Amino acid sequence: MSAVSQIRTRHFPGRLEAVGQIRWFVAGLVDGLPRAYDITLCASELAANAIEHTASGEAGGTVEVRVDLAPAGRPGALTLAVVDQGPPRVPHPRRPAEESGRGLLLVGELVDDICRTATTTTITFDRKREGA
């Protein structure tokens, strides 16, 4: 007997306006699960970063969001991947007083594991752990 896939994938336009749609997509998948708020918050942060800092934010760009509700070999976990179209855009210097630029620090505090490749950031949540 083969296992039923618990992976849900959706592509979104690479515009900052799509971050709300991404939040609703993820929130609908994790509603009622422990740490649902943390998962949804991290999804929107990673998506915004992909749109802001990679070629996904260029005209015609897209962002893929993948949620695995039952990753193989990780009982009780959930993984979320945001796939961008790299390569990075040319960054602009940030001033110390700017409010942006701290999202990955927040994500790092909320997740149990984070893995980055050239175009994909995958985060893992242990659903048994209490939310932040």
Note down, in words, how this protein is organized:
The protein is of the alpha+beta class and 132 residues long. The chain has a single domain, classed as Histidine kinase-like ATPase, C-terminal domain (Heat Shock Protein 90, 2-Layer Sandwich). The protein is 30% helix and 24% strand. It is built from 3 helices and 5 strands. It has helices spanning 18-30, 36-53, 103-110; strands spanning 7-13, 62-68, 77-83, 113-116, 120-126. It has a 5-stranded antiparallel β-sheet, with helices on one face. It starts with 6 loop residues before the first strand and ends in a 6-residue tail after the last strand. The mean pLDDT is 88.
Give the SSE layout:
Elements: E1 7-13, H1 18-30, H2 36-53, E2 62-68, E3 77-83, H3 103-110, E4 113-116, E5 120-126
Helix pairs in contact: 1-2, 2-3
What proportion of the residues form beta strands (DSSP E)?
Answer: 15-25%
Question: What name does the CATH topology carry?
Answer: Heat Shock Protein 90
CATH class: Alpha Beta
- CATH-level-4 superfamily name: Histidine kinase-like ATPase, C-terminal domain
Reported CATH architecture: 2-Layer Sandwich
Class based on secondary structure composition and strand pairing: alpha+beta
Cα radius of gyration in angstroms: 15 Å
Q: How far apart, in Å, are the first and last alpha carbons?
A: 38 Å
Quaternary organisation: single chain
Largest sheet: 5 strands, antiparallel
Instruction: Name the overall outline.
Output: globular
Tally of domains? 1
**How many extended strands?**
5
